[in-house]
Amino acid sequence: GSTFRRARLRSRSCVSRREFFSLGLAVGPCIAFPGSLLAERDQLLPLEAKLKTSDLKKPSSDPFPKEPIVAEWMEGVWDVVVTKKAVQAPQGGKFLPDEYDLNRERSSIGKPVQYRLRFAQRRDGSGVATDRTFNLTSMMNAYAGTELVNNVDWDPNGIRSVALFRNSPGAKSIQILNASAVAAAEDLYLVEELFRNIFTNGNAGESPKTTDVEIITAYRRSLESRLDGTQRIVVYLTPSSDSWSADYDDTAVLISDFTLQMTRL
């Protein structure tokens, strides 16, 4: 059998909000790569530092985020292996949302997950972009261990994706890019993104749940057909979070660290 983790959902007709947010945290890798590439070393340092410190604060939202561009050497279809290396709750779980269970998040440490990603030239020839529909479907199905996603719609004007789930007609995932920053050297590409994740499941009688997730990733080209990377996914509260309180100061409540290995097909 496969050595790769398949986190199968419980057998039932609906996707619960806890299951969705577990998937949502997992599928952060490689959803988008924004911005123009910057070569100066002083642009790399702030993003590299964010991969090491637990003292993280939510970035400010950009009212006009741009459609992302990726490094030219990322073009193609890639086989990706992502392995969780560490999980921490900087505030001791004080503000941890109900959607995230710390023991469950830590139980997947060291267990690799495999899927494919695709990056292609834009139709207007302006650069390489992520195939959001392909990538989001590939990642969510891999983490679920089943054909979970029915379809994904991507609105480039609103910088958002909407995913619908099989056997759960009332369940919907909305992901909105709120901010981004990038930096690059010859064989290094760093990206920081802030997403707002919204999950609704009307058929289950659950109210919509919203979480802000920051994704910081460093991709290193080791060979023409091989990329290695490190990634940090950071969860922040929104006013609609179950654990929101007046003394919350926009600091990280959950940090998960990953390694990535990508091989061009």
Order of helices and strands: HHEHEEHEEEEEEE
Most strands sheet: 10 strands, antiparallel
Give the low-confidence spans: 1-14, 25-41
Helix coverage percent: 10-25%
Give the tally of β-strands. 10
| Helix count from the secondary structure assignment | 4
Oligomer: single chain
Q: What average pLDDT do the residues reach? A: 80
Rg on CA atoms, Å: 17 Å
Distance between the termini: 22 Å
Q: Strand content of the residues, in percent?
A: 35-45%
For the biggest β-sheet, the strand order reads: 3-2-1-10-9-8-7-6-5-4
Structural class by secondary-structure content: mainly beta
Sum up the overall morphology in one term. globular
Tell me what you see in this structure.
The chain has helices at 17-26, 41-50, 102-107, 132-144; strands spanning 76-88, 113-121, 128-130, 149-155, 160-165, 168-185, 188-201, 206-223, 226-236, 254-264. The protein is mostly beta strands and 265 residues long. It has a ten-stranded antiparallel beta sheet with strand order 3-2-1-10-9-8-7-6-5-4. A hairpin with a 2-residue loop joins strand 8 and strand 9 (226-236). The relative contact order is 0.25. Residues 1-14 and 25-41 have low confidence and may be disordered.
